[in-house]
Design the sequence.
């Protein structure tokens, strides 16, 4: 599950997925990053994406912008605490709690998606022959 | 992320995109012909050059309507 760290007025949300892996999934199987719902299960209700800058999160999705600086290189986004609050944990939970639940639901499926992509890529690579 | 209701007089669909996505990308992916009629973003008509701006450039952070309006000629 995504982790949240509060430092001053900055809230850093770290995904359980590597930034590079999200880029890979976006390239080869972008629909896997969208949570669908609605009556027929075809309406997008939450989406994970990669972007530049600081990233963002709201009720429609989460955009991760950078990787952690340690060896894990997990995807992160940074948001600011813009309202005065005595209970910052409560404020963060209120602002992004629902979004984090949807993010968690998508992240749970991504390791299997990534594994499938890597298997198909390996198959394609094995069929590439360098003649000269 | 931005929820965009994109389409035209006949058909609309909701998509979710990053705020740094351009209007042109969303319209192309949705298969909307923006070469005919007038493009509107939240009811305001767009100008030449606006298509390659992002939703963030327009200050849109949550949701919006991006619609192509074609006015048929009257008899």
Sequence:
């Amino acid at each position: 599950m995504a982790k949240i760290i509060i430092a001053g007025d900055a809230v850093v949300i770290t995904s359980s997925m590597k930034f590079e892996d999200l880029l890979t999934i976006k390239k080869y199987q972008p629909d896997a990053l969208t949570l669908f719902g609605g009556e027929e299960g075809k309406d997008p209700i939450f989406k994970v994406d990669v972007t530049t800058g600081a990233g963002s999160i709201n009720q429609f999705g989460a955009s991760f912008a950078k990787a952690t600086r340690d060896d894990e290189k997990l995807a992160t986004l940074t948001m600011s605490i813009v309202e005065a609050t005595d209970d910052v944990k409560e404020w963060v939970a209120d602002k992004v709690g629902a979004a984090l639940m949807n993010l968690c639901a998508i992240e749970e499926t991504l390791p299997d998606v990534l594994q499938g992509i890597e298997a198909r890529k390996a198959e394609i690579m094995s069929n590439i022959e360098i003649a000269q | 992320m931005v929820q965009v209701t994109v389409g035209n007089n006949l058909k609309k669909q909701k998509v979710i995109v990053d705020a740094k996505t351009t209007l042109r990308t969303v319209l192309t992916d949705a298969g909307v012909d923006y070469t005919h009629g007038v493009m509107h973003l939240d009811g305001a008509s767009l100008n030449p050059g606006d298509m390659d701006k992002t939703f963030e450039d327009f200050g849109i952070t949550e949701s919006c309507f991006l619609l192509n309006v074609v006015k048929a000629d009257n008899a």
User: Anything to note?
Assistant: The CA atoms of residues 30 and 52 of chain B lie 16 Å apart. Chain B has a mean pLDDT of 91. The first strand of chain B starts at residue 2 and ends at 8. The longest helix of chain B spans residues 23-30.
